[in-house]
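Example record for the data management plan.
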Amino acid sequence: MRQIRQSKKLHDVRYDVRGPILVEAQRLEAEGHRILKLNIGNPAPFGFEAPEAILADVTHHLADSQGYSDSRGIFSARTAVAQYYQQRGLRDTNVDDVFIGNGVSELISMVLQAFLDDGNEILVPAPDYPLWTGAVTLSGGTPVHYLCDEANGWNPDLADIEAKITENTHGIVIINPNNPTGAVYSKEVVDGLVDIARRHDLVVFADEIYEKIIFDDAVHHHAAASGGADVLVLTFSGLSKAYRVCGYRAGWVMISGPQEVATDFLEGLTLIANMRMCSNVPAQHAIQTALGGYQSIQELIVPGGRFYEQSMLAHRLLNEIPGVSSVKPSGALYCFPRLDPEVYAIDDDEAFVIDLLRAKKILVTHGTGFNWPSPDHFRLVTLPDVAMLEEAIGRIADFLATRR
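Corresponding structural encoding:
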């Protein structure tokens, strides 16, 4: 019989967060080992629960959620999202500017499928959340990675972006707060990124899923506010992280700027939304309650709160390991430490994290899995409680001591 092979469209697509390292972790679990999984930002396994009001509202609406909804989402959810942005200075946002999806992940794929022709280039940060690179490739586009500068708090290198723009560049991805680095961009940086888009007629894709998870004096600035009336900005966010309901898959994209020049594109996006019928209806009922109710995330991101204390502890403990440096995260749920190549001679960082997994039963993700060009970083999720983080980073330190 002939071999049944995967589509050639997948040949350059990677998603290493759930790639070979997870397969190896599952093999070890099948042998009876307990693996501490610090590879995915999933709050539920670490004791974070959704606000009770959200659970109650979803339960209340279950009987009314048996049929399809409008493909763009239920009216109350889209209205709540529109009002959320209105309250943040984007006063022209209305319900028709919002599409609800099965998490930001689905919406990224839908938007890029509607937007890209084969070979179109999209600027994507390095490091990035790898879904962006994979979805651009799968949609026929070409991801072009611009560097974020570790020595400058992981801020985007604006000169590097300018140098990589060609006549075939159609858009730029901004991930703020950033996954995997934890950087939160200042207004000047966001303005600078959007100004590049303005001058080169690019569409901005703003991934802002961690916008509520920021620490100390960091302030989140919406790219859409910088875009104003003359830059088309698609803003992606949702409930997964700030409201601890990753499994609900409740996200949205909000379109702002000169929509009159994007009529054809938006018709294409509507077509794709119609083809998948609608997103998960029960979870859509969580959106209005979440955005309009008590914002319990505030308790977690201030000193004494778990998100805050765990992020600061991870940052401190990582920097205490010889040959390891980690930029202090200003937001999100991760650290992205660097392994000094003069101390640790690592040629294959995927092999390195698999060796760590086998030796210490700790699962992290290698830096090249986030399209960082050198094998000298890894990403650590900061969701475990303080005692578990101390244990985990202690095991990492013990392992690195054998590699110096």
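Summary line stored alongside the record: The radius of gyration is 21 Å.
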